[in-house]
Amino acid sequence: MTMTDPLGDMITRIRNAQLRGKGKVVTPASKLRGWVLDVLAEEGFIRGYARVEYPGGKSDFEIELKYNEGAPVIQMIERVSTPGRRVYSSVKTMPTVHNGLGISILSTPKGIMSDVAAREQNVGGEVLCRVF
Fold first, then answer.
1. Which of 74, 92, 93, 86 is nearest to 127 (CA)?
2. Radius of gyration of the CA atoms of the chain, in A
3. Non-local CB neighbours of 71 within 8 Å, separated by 6+ positions
4. Helix count (H) and strand count (E) of the chain?
5. What pLDDT, in 10s, does the model give residues 9-39?
6. Taking the mean position of all CA atoms in its chain, how far away is CA 14?
7. Residue of 19, 70, 18 lying closest to 46 (CA atoms)
8. Helix/strand/coil for 80
9. Which of 48, 100, 112, 130 has a CB 3.0–4.6 Å from the CB of 35, allowing a cystine?
């Protein structure tokens, strides 16, 4: 059976692993997931990630989660735009997450980026998720 929301699955895996205090989490690899993980790493929400290749062409991402004095750095991560309900935002209507302490990750014509980068480049797009 195919997965209908791969990005939502990755977000849920990250959330569950952080709630359990895990150091790493593994999720199937894809381009979209890699781009979202790039943004999370740039913004300092995760330590990093590595692509693990398996025989037969399958590959996974091994994500290193980040903690600050035992508390998870990601306090809240949620999917905004889902396959059944797409959410788009222009630069003017782009909401801030917790008064700028968090980020929104957007899919724009210029690639996957945070809301801060989208405002700098004056571009809107689909709001994939919010992280705080």
1. 86
2. 15
3. none
4. 3, 10
5. 999 999 999 999 999 999 999 999 999 999 9
6. 9
7. 18
8. coil
9. 112
Euclidean distance between CA atoms 44 and 39, whole angstroms: 9
pLDDT of the residue at 87: 98
CA–CA dist 51, 62 (Å, integer): 6
Which stretch of DSSP H or E encloses residue 17?
helix 6-20
Q: Give the count of beta carbons closer than 10 Å to the beta carbon of residue 62.
A: 14
Write out the E strands in 1-132: 24-28, 46-53, 59-65, 67-68, 71-72, 77-79, 88-89, 103-108, 111-114, 125-131
- Residue 3 — pLDDT band, cuts 50, 70, 90? confident
Write down the domain spans for the chain. Answer: 6-131
pLDDT at position 2 is 67
Nearest-angstrom CA–CA distance, 55 and 128: 31
Kindly report, residue by residue over 34-81, the tens digit of the pLDDT. 999 999 999 999 999 999 999 999 999 999 999 999 999 999 999 999
Place of tokens 């989208």: 118
* Nearest Cα residue to 30 out of 112, 103, 126, 117: 112
